[in-house]
């Protein structure tokens, strides 16, 4: 497909349409206040993105419970004290012409005790000496996701994106390796998907008819089974529970290495499903205009921009101006990121990514 197709509008099942096919991926940046309140650095980052031409901008992973924290200086939405800062972020995105979503996150067994996190595993076998969540505790976390979505709506966001990837709590419950429960949240595929579906259904009931719900899904590691995830995604799309599915791939071109779909492109496993009005997009090393356009050819409705958006906050505008645009090669210097407007806190976080920031001595 031509690059110009990336700038065609895209309707969603609920609420306003995306003005083009570029979505800003949810990017951990560790630059909020220690209490989870949005900082001046969060506001500056969002303000830059808001002027960058994106159709929809997601926040970083945002905690639905204080005990679900994974990262230092993680943005929060688990308390009404967070509302003012979040409202300012939503207003900035709206002023720039884009749609907005808070990514709702709970770290589950990966919660960090050094930051006040309370490790909350699905299974008693996951962490030595840590009991599995009781059924009532699972239901409390479910309700915390729903309450956080309601706060996002009150703050003026167009929707939320439910984080079901990377072994965080919803992903963890999906995994037969990490979930050996005997209650209604364990055992069968249906039971292991129950928490995710109850969260999404609850958000639909609690929020208005135009409120948008996305779901981020990863398919690698943590004992996840591709065949099962495809089955769950098919059900969620058939029921039109979500507006968009965000496939969090490490590489959007990767090939399945084992199982029933061996040899197929990972993306095709999901793009071949009936979508029933749900939109599908993918992340994963989308660094230039031609690759973004190619993903539409491969069946995506939109693309999620991550690394390329850190390097150039206005990636969609760069593509609009130049259909052959490619991101600067990695790694880059801290000075390059600094001159581009990235905060020192964000740069420090990016130093932890492989081959992204050159050592200062270079």
From TrEMBL:
Keyword field contains Flavoprotein: yes
SUPFAM superfamilies: FMN-linked oxidoreductases
Protein's UniProt keywords contain Oxidoreductase: yes
UniProtKB keywords: Flavoprotein, Oxidoreductase
One Pfam family, short name: Oxidored_FMN
Domain NADH:flavin oxidoreductase/NADH oxidase N-terminal: 5-319
Protein known as: NADH:flavin oxidoreductase
């Amino acid at each position: 497909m031509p690059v110009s197709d990336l700038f065609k509008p895209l309707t969603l099942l609920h609420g306003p349409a995306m003005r083009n096919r570029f979505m800003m991926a949810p990017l951990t940046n560790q630059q909020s206040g220690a209490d989870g309140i949005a900082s001046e650095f969060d506001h500056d980052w969002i303000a830059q993105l808001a002027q960058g031409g994106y159709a929809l901008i997601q926040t970083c992973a945002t905690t639905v419970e204080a005990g679900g924290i994974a990262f230092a200086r993680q943005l929060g939405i688990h308390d009404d004290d967070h509302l003012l800062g979040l409202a300012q972020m939503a207003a900035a995105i709206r002023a720039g012409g884009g749609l907005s979503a808070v990514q709702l996150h709970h770290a589950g067994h990966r919660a960090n005790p050094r930051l006040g996190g309370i490790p909350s595993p699905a299974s008693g076998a996951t962490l030595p000496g840590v009991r599995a969540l009781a059924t009532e505790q699972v239901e409390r976390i479910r309700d915390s996701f729903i309450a956080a979505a309601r706060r996002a709506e009150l703050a003026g966001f167009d929707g939320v994106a439910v984080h079901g990837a990377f072994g965080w709590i919803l992903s963890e419950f999906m995994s037969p390796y990490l979930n050996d429960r005997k209650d209604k949240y364990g055992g069968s595929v249906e039971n292991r998907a129950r928490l995710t579906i109850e969260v999404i259904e609850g958000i639909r009931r609690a929020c208005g008819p135009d409120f948008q719900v996305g779901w981020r899904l990863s398919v690698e590691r943590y004992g996840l089974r591709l065949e099962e995830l495809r089955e769950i995604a098919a059900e969620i799309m058939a029921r039109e529970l979500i507006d968009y599915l965000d496939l969090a791939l490490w590489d959007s071109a990767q090939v399945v290495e084992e199982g029933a779909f061996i040899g197929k492109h990972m993306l095709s496993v999901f793009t071949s499903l009936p979508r029933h009005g749900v939109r599908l997009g993918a992340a994963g090393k989308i660094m230039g205009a031609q690759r973004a356009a190619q993903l539409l050819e491969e069946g995506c409705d939109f693309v999620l921009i991550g690394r390329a958006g850190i390097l150039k906050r206005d990636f969609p505008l760069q593509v609009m101006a130049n259909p052959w645009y490619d991101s600067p090669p990695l790694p880059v210097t801290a000075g390059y990121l600094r001159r581009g407007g990235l905060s020192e806190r964000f740069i420090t976080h990016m130093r932890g990514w492989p081959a992204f920031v050159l050592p200062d001595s270079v």
